């Protein structure tokens, strides 16, 4: 059933007007605003983006429980998907995560937390986890997929291994959210802490969508060419 | 199966075709009985009669003017009922926040049934847990050891318990606090003054 999903003849601006969080999807496609009255298809063609991939990502980010049918899936170019994932890794690491961490460090700087040091350590450790997670994908998984696409035989790896080892970046974020919501001292007023939390929520949401893009789409596509 | 053991369902849906269709499909299963059919919220509240429902199926289009979290507040007489959305197509995440689950009119009877049974199950189990939130003193001691970075084996030796018991304590601590990672538990312990930063050096 495709009722209510985004489609290629829609105006691209309407996507963002419907779901502003797609603003976090755009950098992965190297897409800026300046959308004018162009349709999704026009924008994608102008920028050399796969329309099917762009719509898939936007739909996945916007509609709960959306899962593409086999026909939609077969139109997704793997190289474009990997490029998108790699670009969003960069955005996560260079823009999103530093912003979340900065907000949390601000809380410590304003003096309302006496456990600042541990919180700093927690953030630093999490950042290292994210770097390692993305690094593994870019240095092991993506090259493997590229070699598959080139028709080179690789016997020492398959995508099942990635599926098994896909570590969970979600748990730590969830823990941090819990602690900030439940146990911040009263000196830490809502005005001081809400921005940190809102950024944390947005980051967590985007990361979970990024993960489902990898686990639902990337793995499914690679399994097809492994056979 | 007598009517007493069935899940009683209310359907609130503007389209008569859909209302009657869903009733028909659901009643193919002996576990469900549809005891109320309404075209909108007004008639749900106005029409007299037995309104003891276990499940309320509601088309979110008719509550769009309300904020999503307020969906439950629309049914003050049914604090324990499951409220599921009837969908014609995809809607954005936020509209569905207040609902316990989702049925699509494109689902066949088997799929609808499955979804409803699943929602019933997860909801009952999450409600059972609500009252059990405070950590016991023993759990606090174990938590301190976890926060200090001790392994299960070391914790078992230190507290004279089996590794199996350590694991079960860890599970309960995570369930009660909502915190899963060791780093998170360390934060929890310091924020709750169970240990100080110096203890961790």
Question: Topology of this protein?
Answer:
The complex is a heterodimer of chains A (227) and B (201).
Chain A: H1 12-18, H2 40-47, H3 51-62, H4 70-74, H5 78-109, H6 116-149, H7 159-165, H8 170-183, H9 190-226
Chain B: E1 7-12, H1 16-26, E2 32-38, H2 41-46, E3 55-58, E4 82-87, E5 101-104, H3 109-128, H4 137-147, H5 152-159, H6 163-177, H7 182-191
Parallel strand pairs in B: 1-2, 1-3, 3-4, 4-5
Helix pairs in contact in B: 4-6, 4-7, 5-6
Mean pLDDT of chain B: 83
N-to-C series of helices and strands of chain B: EHEHEEEHHHHH
The assembly state of the depicted protein chains is: heterodimer
* Broad structural category of chain A: mainly alpha
Q: Please state roughly what percent of the residues of chain B sit in beta strands, choosing from under 5%, 5-15%, 15-25%, 25-35%, 35-45% or over 45%.
A: 5-15%
CATH class of the largest domain in chain B: Alpha Beta
Commentary on this structure:
The complex is a heterodimer of chains A (227) and B (201). With 227 residues, chain A is mostly helical. Chain A has two domains: 12-73, no CATH class; 78-226. Helix content of chain A is 69%, strand content 0%. Chain A contains nine helices and no strands. In chain A, helix 8 packs antiparallel against helix 9. The longest helix of chain A has 37 residues, at 190-226. Chain B is an alpha/beta fold and 201 residues long. Chain B has two domains: 3-128, Response regulator (Rossmann fold, 3-Layer(aba) Sandwich), CATH 3.40.50; 137-200, Winged helix-like DNA-binding domain superfamily/Winged helix DNA-binding domain (Arc Repressor Mutant, subunit A), CATH 1.10.10. Chain B is 40% helix and 13% strand. Chain B contains seven helices and five strands. Chain B has helices at residues 16-26, 41-46, 109-128, 137-147, 152-159, 163-177, 182-191; strands spanning 7-12, 32-38, 55-58, 82-87, 101-104. A five-stranded parallel beta sheet of chain B has the order 2-1-3-4-5. In chain B, strand 1, helix 1 and strand 2 (32-38) form a beta-alpha-beta unit. In chain B, helix 4 (137-147) crosses helix 6 (163-177), helix 4 (137-147) crosses helix 7 (182-191) and helix 5 packs across helix 6 (163-177). The longest helix of chain B has 20 residues, at 109-128. Chain B starts with 6 loop residues before the first strand and ends in a 10-residue tail after the last helix. At the A-B interface, helix 6 and helix 8 of A face helix 7 of B.
